[in-house]
Amino acid sequence: MIVAFSVTPLGVGEDVGEYVADAVRVVRESGLPNRTDAMFTSVEGEWDEVMDVVRRAVAAVEQRAPRVSLVLKADIRPGVTDGLTSKVETVERYLGE
């Protein structure tokens, strides 16, 4: 399973990078395959472990923000591993043709 999610602190002003870094730190310390871009952090693993990471990332932001917004998109495909890499490689292969 791959989950792309975004955690946004509300009520803390416009500069939220420090808060988002708290969430991303949780993801990176989880040891699960992950990627962060300008809009989302994607994490790959089994349902329970991925959802636990998302829960803990939200909790990290919640500790310092009065309100938190969570956007989540999941690709649930049993038996597939390394989707974070293989999906991008497939697109890049087609772009190279």
Automatic annotation (TrEMBL):
<comment type="similarity">
    <text>Belongs to the UPF0045 family.</text>
</comment>
<dbReference type="GO" id="GO:0005829">
    <property type="term" value="C:cytosol"/>
</dbReference>
<protein>
    <submittedName>
        <fullName>UPF0045 protein</fullName>
    </submittedName>
</protein>
<dbReference type="InterPro" id="IPR002767">
    <property type="entry name" value="Thiamine_BP"/>
</dbReference>
<dbReference type="InterPro" id="IPR029756">
    <property type="entry name" value="MTH1187/YkoF-like"/>
</dbReference>
<feature type="domain" description="Thiamine-binding protein">
    <location>
        <begin position="3"/>
        <end position="92"/>
    </location>
</feature>
<dbReference type="InterPro" id="IPR051614">
    <property type="entry name" value="UPF0045_domain"/>
</dbReference>
<dbReference type="Pfam" id="PF01910">
    <property type="entry name" value="Thiamine_BP"/>
</dbReference>
